[in-house]
Request: fold
Amino acid sequence: MAKVTVDYDKCDGGDCGECADVCPMEVLVLEGDKIVIKNPEDCSLCEVCMDVCPQECVNVEDD
Reply:
């Protein structure tokens, strides 16, 4: 299972939302103005969210 984390101190949340836009498994979703991790067990470890994050606050690791 994947371990997905977001560094909320650096994350722009609703002002950005790039990670939620590109996540094919909808693990990262935008709720209000915050990125929320939903069902990390569905993560395919594609790491696209990490690639698009301008603040480098998303991390995906194989658990």
User: Anything to note?
Assistant: The first strand starts at residue 2 and ends at 6. The chain has a mean pLDDT of 97. Residues 2-62 form a domain with the Alpha-Beta Plaits fold (CATH 3.30.70.20). Residues 3 and 61 are 5 Å apart (CA to CA).
